[in-house]
Structures are given as C-alpha cells and as structure tokens.
Amino acid sequence: MALKVLDNSLALTDKKLIYNERVILSENEKSPLAFLGYGDQNMNMQGSNYSFEDKLTSKLPLVIGSITELEDAYNINLTFENTNHLELKCYLDNEGRLIVEPHILKKGNWNRLWLRIVADSEEKIYGCGEQLTYLNLRKHVFPIWTSNTGVGRNKKKLVTMQADLEENAGGDYYTTSFPQATFISSHKYYCHIDDYSFVTFDFTNEQFHELLFWSVPKRLIFETSTTYKRLLGKMTKLLGRQNVLPSWTDNGIILGLTGGIKRVQQVEKKLKAGGVNIAAILCHDVNEKSQEKYSNLAETIQQWNKEDMKYLGYITPYIAKNSPNYLKLSGKQMFVKNKEGKDYTVLISHQQFVLIDLTNPMAFMWLKDEIKNKLLAIGASGWIADGGENLPADGIVFENKQAFELHNYWPVLWAKCNLQAIEETRKEAEIVYFMKAGSAQSAYYSPVLWQGMQSVDWSQDDGLASAICATLSSGMSGMGISQSDIGGNLSSYGNMRTAELLARWTEFACFSPFMRMQETNRPAVNFQAYDNNIAIEHLAKFSNIFKDLSRYRQEVIKQVTLEGLPAMRPLFIEYEKDEEAYKQRYEYLFGTDLLIAPVYRAGKKEWQVYLPDDNWIHIWSGRKYKTGYHTISAQIGEIPVFYRAYSKFSEQFEKIGNQYSKGWIQ
Amino acid sequence: MALKVLDNSLALTDKKLIYNERVILSENEKSPLAFLGYGDQNMNMQGSNYSFEDKLTSKLPLVIGSITELEDAYNINLTFENTNHLELKCYLDNEGRLIVEPHILKKGNWNRLWLRIVADSEEKIYGCGEQLTYLNLRKHVFPIWTSNTGVGRNKKKLVTMQADLEENAGGDYYTTSFPQATFISSHKYYCHIDDYSFVTFDFTNEQFHELLFWSVPKRLIFETSTTYKRLLGKMTKLLGRQNVLPSWTDNGIILGLTGGIKRVQQVEKKLKAGGVNIAAILCHDVNEKSQEKYSNLAETIQQWNKEDMKYLGYITPYIAKNSPNYLKLSGKQMFVKNKEGKDYTVLISHQQFVLIDLTNPMAFMWLKDEIKNKLLAIGASGWIADGGENLPADGIVFENKQAFELHNYWPVLWAKCNLQAIEETRKEAEIVYFMKAGSAQSAYYSPVLWQGMQSVDWSQDDGLASAICATLSSGMSGMGISQSDIGGNLSSYGNMRTAELLARWTEFACFSPFMRMQETNRPAVNFQAYDNNIAIEHLAKFSNIFKDLSRYRQEVIKQVTLEGLPAMRPLFIEYEKDEEAYKQRYEYLFGTDLLIAPVYRAGKKEWQVYLPDDNWIHIWSGRKYKTGYHTISAQIGEIPVFYRAYSKFSEQFEKIGNQYSKGWIQ
C-alpha cells in the first residue's frame, strides 16, 4: 500500500493509521481492525444494580479492503470476505483532534461493533470515569454503564455474596455510578467516545484495546499532547470543567446529621464546643415523614447562616409511589413508563419509586421547581443530588429515544436540571451539590463528584483505599473535584465502622477539596466522631488544618477550573519519567506541592512512602527527604504528608506542621 | 423450493428436513439453521472443577443457499452473504437412522459450530447423561464436560460459595461426572452427537434447540420410534448396554467402611448381629499408608467369602506424586504431560497427583496390571473405579490427539481398562465396579454408574432429591443401572447427616439395583447406621426387603440388558399419554410393577403421591388405589411404594408388605 499522508499529523501507511506519531489503528493477520455483529441483550435490573447478558448471533471480523484518500479525510473500507461492510472516516477537526467516524456500508441487522486500538505491552491506561478498584486499567474489562457502586465489590467476599443474594447489590470491580467512555494512554493520548450508549473497554490484550459498542457510536475522538497535564487540559476543554467552589466551603467540615433539628443541634454544639470547624450541616432525612422534627428548619437555617454555617439538603429525580407528589403528577406523562404504558416502578431500599421523566420538558421543569421550592427557597446552600443511575434499559421516555441509549446520559440530564435551577435563581457562586452519578459533561454541570456509599472498612474494593483510587481515576477522567464520605457510609452484614477508620479517613479528606462526614446507614451501631473526646479532638485538629489550607486549596481548585488538572493527582502526572511514580496507586499530590500517602490499613504506626525526585519536607517532623522509599512514622493524627521545599506555600505548610504536629492525639 | 423426498422416512421440502414426520432442521427469517465461527477458549481447572470462557472472534449466521439431491443423501449448502460455507450431508444409515454430517466448505479458521434443531414450546427434553438438578432439560443450558458434580451445586447457596472460594468446587446445576451428548425429545426421537468434544446444549429457546460445538463434530445421529421404550431400546443398541449383575449383589447391602480390618469387622459384626444382610464390605482406604491396618486383608477376604460376603476395593487412574509407583514409572512417558513436557500435576484434596496416560498402551497395560495385582489377585469382587474427570484440556498425551477433545472420552478409556482387566482374568460374571465418571459407551464398559458424592442433605441441588433426578436422567441416557451412596457422602462446611436422612435414603436405595452405604468424608461427626439400635433395625428391615426382591430385581435388570430400559424409570415411560406423569420428577417406577415415591424432605409423616392410570396396591397397607393424587401415610420405615395389582410378582409384593409393614420402626 502506498504511503499516504494527509497532513503532518495524520498518515495512513502500510495499513496503519498514524496520528501525531502514535499508531492508533492497524491490522495484522492475527488481529482484524474491527468486527461487526448482532447480539440479543438481556439486561437485568434490580434497583440500580444491573447484570448484562449478550447472545451473539453474528460477529464478522473485518479487514482493510481499500483506503480512499479524500481532500480532508481517509476513508478506510473494511471488508468481510471481500465485501465492504464498514467505513471508518478518519479526519482532523479544527482543533487538530483525530475523529474516527464509523459508517455501516452493508445493510443488515447490526447492533454490535468492535474496534481495536493499537496497544503495546508496556502501555498503561487511566480513566473510564470513577473507577474504585483499579487506577491503571490494563488487564481488565470495563463496561460503561452507570449503576450502584456495589457492596463489597468483590465476588470472592462474603459481604458481596450476601448483597448479591439480597438484591444483586454486591457489585464488582468495575461497578460505578460514574463511568465515562474516555481513557488516557501512557502514550499520551486520550480516546473519548462521543456517545452515551453502552460500551465495554477491554484492556486485557497486550496488542490492542478492544472497544465493544452495543450500538454504532457517532464518533471516537483522539487527541495527543507532550505531557499528561497538557493532555488533561485538552481533554477537559472538550468535555467541560468544574467551576470554583463557594468560599464558605473553606470554613470546615460538612457534617451529615439526621434525626430532626433538636438532635442535629445537640451534636453540632457538642462538636463545635470541642473545637470542630463546621462549614455546613447536611440533613438528608428532611421529607414528608420527618416534617414535624424539622418544622422550624427555615428559621434554623437563618440562625445557622448568621453563625457562618450553611445548610445542605437532599433530593433525587425519583419520587415514592403513592406519595402526595406522585398522586399530583400522575397521568401527566411525568414518569418513565414501562412497555405496558404503566409507570415504571423501581425498588430502592425496599420502597417503590417512579422516575421523573427528564426528557419531558414539563417534568424537567417540575423537578427544577422542586429544587427551587424545597431547597433554595428555604435557604439551602447545597444538597446531595442523589440518584440518576436508575433509567431502566427497557423504559419508555417522552422523547423519541431508546432508554437503553439514554441510560448513561440520564445523570448528566439530572445534573443539568440542578444547574439550571441555580442559574435561574442566580446563585451559582453560593451553591454546591454533590452528585455520585455522572458521565462525560458532568464536569460542566456538577460542581462536585460524590463518590457514593463506600463500605465502612479499609478495603481496596470498597473501603478507604477504594476512595483514594476513585479520586485519582475520576481526576484522570476530567472530574477534578471529588469527595468521599469520611469513614465510609455503608455498614452491611455486620461490617462496622471503627474509631481508627474514621480517624484515618478524616486525615485523608483533610487534604482534598472537601471534608464531608455522614453517620452511615446505621448511625446507632457505627462509631461516630462525637462518640468520645479523643475523636472530637482529632476531628477538630483536621478541620483546623483544612481551614488553614484554604488559600492553598483555592489555588489548587483554580487549576481544576483553568487548566483541567485534578485537585488530587497521581504522582506520575507531575513526575512523568519516574517509573516508580506509576506504581503508587494510593499516594497522591494535592495540587503540585503537597504529597499525601494516606494510611489505608488498620493498626499501622509506620507507613512506607515513595517520594519522586524533588526536595520534600515531612510536614509534622520538618525532616527533609529526597526521592525513594522511606518508612515514616504515621501514628493516628499524623498522616504522611510532605510539601515541596520550594513551594511558594512552604512557609504556611511549615507553620501548619509546627502547630499541629505534637500534643494532639498520641 | 421443489418437494424432495429421498425415501419414505426422509424428505426435504420448503427448507425443512423431515425425518419420520418430525421436522428436524428448518430455517426462517428470524432463525438461521447454523452458525460458523471462531473462539478463543479459556479453560480453568482446579482439581476436577472447571470453568470455561470463550472469546468469540467470529460468528456467521448461515442460511440455506442450495440443496443437492444425491442418490442416497441430501446436501444442504449453507451460505453467508451468498458464499457457501458449510455443507450438511443428511442421509439414512443401514438401520434407518438419520445421519447429519457437517463439512466445512469455506476454508478458514473455524472452531465453533452452532446447529439449531427444530423445537416447539410444548416439547420436553431428557437425558444429557447424569443430570442431578433437572429431569426435563427445557429452559436450561447444559455444557457437556465431565467434572466433579460440585458441592451444593447452587450458586445462591452459602455452601456452594464457600466451596467455590476454596477450590472452585461448588459446582452448578449442570456439573456432573457423567455428561453425555445425547438427548431424547418428547417428540420421540433421540439425538446423539457421535463425538466426545465439548458441546453445549441450549434448550432455552421455544423454537429451537441450539447445539454449540467447540470443534466440528463427526456426525449427529437421530432415530425415532413410536414409544419411549422402543426408542430407548434403539438408542442403547447404538450406544451399548450394561450387563446383568453378579448374583452375590442380591445378598444385601454393600457396606463402605474404613479404618483397618479390626474396626471394619467390629462394625460388620454389630450390624450382622442386628439382622442386617451384608453382601460386601468396601474399603476405600487400603493403600500404602494403611498397610499395617490391613496386613491380613487377603486372608480376611477368604474368610468373608466363606461367610458369603464379598470384598470390594478402590482404585483411580492417577497416582500420588512421589509415591513408590510414581518413582518407578517416572521418565517412561507413563503420565500426562503439561506444555513444558513435565508431568502434569493435579491437586486433589490438597495432594498432588499425576495422571496415568491412558493413550499410551504401556501405561494402559500397567494400570490394568494394577487392577489385577492389587485387587483381583487378593480376591476383590469389585471396586470403586474413581476419577476419570481429570484430563486437563491443555494436557499433552502420548497419542497424537488434543487432550481437549479427549477429556470427555477419558472416563470411557478408564472404564475400558477396568473391563479388560476382568475379561483377561475371565471374571466378568463375578465382578462389579462403580464408576462415577463416564459418557457415551460407558454403558458397555462399566456395569454400574455411581452417582458420586452427594451432600448429606435433602436438597434438590445436591442431596437425596438430586440422587433421584440423577437416576432418572441417566436412565434416559442409556445408563440403566446406577446407585447413589445411601445417606449422601459429602459433609462440608457444617452440613451434617441426620438419622432421618440416612433412613429415608436407605428406603429409596432398597428399590434400586444396589444398596451401597458410605460413612461420608467425615465419619466421626456424621450419623452412621451403626450408631443406635433403631437405625440398625431400620437398615436390617430394608436389607431384608432388598434381598426378598431379588427375583423381581433380576427381571428388572434383564430389561436393562435386553431392552435398554432403565431399571428406575420416570412414570411417563410407561404411561406416555398421562400429562401428569411428566410432572413427577421425584417418583419412579422400579421395573414396570413397582412405583416408588421417595420421601425427600425432613419431618414428613405423610407424602403426596401421583399414581398413573392402573390398579395400584399400597405395599404396606394393602389398600387399593386408582389414578390421581393421593396423600399417603409415610412414616419413617414406610416409604410410599405401590405395586401393580396385575403384576406377575404381586403375590411376592403382598408377602413383603405383610411381613414388613408393622412392628418395625414407628
């Protein structure tokens, strides 16, 4: 095949599509470039837990038959047994991005497309949204389908088996509320699928990454850069970025409490008396049933605001069946329907809900008004915008679209609804909402990714360690601002939160954009920060450090907004050539100048830390460190934290270190 | 398409292959006749537990392109996109059987073939070897791959989860040591795959049965008949039948005992003193380690024989690594090898074993000699021929064949080895051996199918109920003589045998070709027949009834040998037009004249029984019954048993009923 060069960045030579010196597409005898086929899917849904089955009835390996060079594009014609079946139109857009558009040439019943992207054995892959188990996605398969994250998330653990038996809720290494069809290669390109349909990324092969689409996607977008940071900048320019946060979020911890105003105030006062800085109180149990206990909420919010404390609420895009709202909206096409034309009911925590049909402008507006009336009107400064993972694959929606293809877009629509409610009341600068569900473009519509309900344990599958991984992988997907619930949230099948876990998670959250703490799904039996003075003292210490870090944190958040850099970054983003840096899945840089190595195992007094090549100062001891592995004293209260000696914030870091290093919890 | 008729039995008209008035093959717009493809399989093996994965890289739906009518055959040419890919040569053999031979026409990398056989929604399917969970296989998928039966055999049960975690040993509804690629349709035809390669039968579709072959099979064989009984006769004529049993097996129970001759004799004497008829003692723990305890075994056997009691042993086609035999045979190509050319080691019960290479004539002979020297020479009248499920898919064998394709044939080879050892010593009429692994042709080579290690519980997945299903399904596959271990055998993860379970299982086994009892894998903690007088008395009663049934049983066994009818039969075999009869998965006819409804739940004093249209007499009460559902008194000791009033054995049955109905266990 003759050498073909479209311009300097894109060339097609010897059956290889080369884009900015990276071979993106290629075929060889053993590996066709693409496959076309048909499958009968079976999607099982229980609440927001899904399982997929696919019965393939055809799959054709396609090879390059011919290549047409147009003025501004290459058309790769793919054949099966010498018949054209698929065209890949490859061209550069105005920004120099490579666009690959698949077009079916041979009419037929096709609903499966596999594309192989060239890989090599050394390559590492990051992203695919919020991934809780793996940072480097190589050797694993990732279906992109928003769902519950799961309980235990490891099919070989008893807690997962029990949750699976109950409602298929155990999850697996790939289950996430925020999957995204975007990845970043260590060859410094990203690949984004410009489509919300179901896709599976298979990174198990050494020679290729295989993408399986359950409907032909609009296009694939590739872009390259010389550094990860610039690449993230380009990617987030395409996908959108999160905004700066309201300044009140710097005031301290966001405290999730339940049980009515009286109880909430008791706890809040106890913690404040113990020196804890509280930025906001979040009550997620304000609803029709608890009205009495929250009867003076609006006045209390005013009072709290005077004390520099905000109130945050809770809302979902679904409502309980037979609730007053349900009866009011019934019969007006406001809810997602099932095939029989009845309201689709979804069982969540043993209660039946119906889903507001976000594709119906009337329903969308009604939900926006709910946000305005129930939250903004009473003075809420934010809320958890929960849910969004529930659109059933076989649901019928108002807009003439397949629910199956909208499923992953649903959380984005839900985010949009929240943002519009705020924009229409001109409160963008004051409000924060936390969304656990999301996908591409969520960054633009939702200020914070909430990592959902981790288990109250240390585990790499679903506990404290998984929250670190989730932070870094979502950062590599363009969600630079995220937070996990301090101490975890799900206490299932005998799993219980300990004081130590709560303390270690507190320390981790201190070096993040947010400190938010919930009481778990079983507050009475899990350890709480207000349970004893040692815990209060510990929380007070870190809420103080958090407050003292405000100026630095604002700098970091600005990098998210202006440059698309995640607030919390894997070490290799800043130290690209350091091979050891790539191995640190549970260490991160908060901004450029703070290196954090959270202790994610119980009973540790020391912790091994890897430092990349720089001049580091251990914040608590003031000791200087060079690159390499070091064993660091890491008592509770002394999370391993290092700052760059030449940071412009070094004086402030030193001050924090001096002030909080001794005399606290030992 | 023009009407084509090859002879009266086979016609091809309107894209339908019609054989003796049954549409066997057909295509329509929604359902192609066949598919051709390629897949990369991944077979995981732990001991004799397997899991499969298949990555398809191609799958072409094939439709009828043309039909060639030869003198003695139809050639159906199947095309994809108008290119011939596969030919199905369809013809009748000398016996009038329909043979379908697939031949690849289009060269390529094909290792997957799917064939669809016409079905309708009312149709029922039986067979596929020993199936423990389902009798009617409709709505389920059955991979044919010999393996352990599994522990619990239900992925939603804790015991299965625990076994899976430990060594992938939990099993599933389809796992069996004796799978067979043969099924019988309620349209009164059988379909047999004349090949031992991996095949999966998918009976989930209403319109077709889909067979998936992992290599192109030699041929499919179909045959029809007017009744199930004649059909079974034809099928077993093709596949081989089991022989009559040695007369000593009528003498009573076969008692499995361990721990050395001294202990064995103690137990045996205790039971005999309690009135238990013992036909044979089976010791499966006679080996190099226990030599001392069995030092006078040969003399003891002689003594036992004088007392009309036989001795049975135990042997496997694998030997412990580093055992004296291993060291002796090492380096002589006697063992199955791995890809590196080393001896393939298989972990069984935490010990490493190597597999005798049954394809090497020298190794085959050595194993035959072991049987002669270690068992026959010391006077054994039989043995458990355990194992045979272990040939690894990636093993390398002496003969130039793929281990993957030999895996299902391995147990047949192992059976052959046993039979030859006996034939060469001219002891065919005296010897019985029990094999749990097997497949097509096992009937010819092994006298008894042993159902392996059921769990010591009642369950339909893996307990007493599963043994009933196993009996009936293997009977429908041509294995007319089978036995389960009375009381089950596997006591895992806290599962323990009760006195009641042992009693109910004893009653079931009494109306079967064999009564064999083992002490379970944990004798000390499970209930044993010799644990108290009530149990001994109960066992004595049923060992007496068993003995008293000898003449009738010999008749029944003759039907196996001469007519291919299973000794224990689903009701519908004898009462074809009775729709209710098809629903009774756990009732059976022992021969034609005894109807048994084993009690397979705990705590029952009554039992609902269905009786087909005949004149029935309840053996214990002498009451007469007509067709229909009846609630019958079913105390322990009074298993629901009915005899046909007009049986030529009715007098004998009446006598048994009178003799044993009262005054025993109440």
From TrEMBL, chains A, B:
InterPro entries: Gal_mutarotase_sf_dom (IPR011013), GH (IPR017853), Glyco_hydro_31_C (IPR048395), Glyco_hydro_31_TIM (IPR000322), Glyco_hydro_b (IPR013780), Sulfoquinovosidase_GH31 (IPR052990)
Boundaries of every Glycosyl hydrolase family 31 C-terminal domain copy: 564-645
Enzymatic class: hydrolase
EC number annotated for this UniProt entry: 3.2.1.20
Annotated signal sequence range: none
Similarity remark: Belongs to the glycosyl hydrolase 31 family.
Name the UniProt record assigns to this protein: Alpha-glucosidase
Source organism: Ligilactobacillus ubinensis
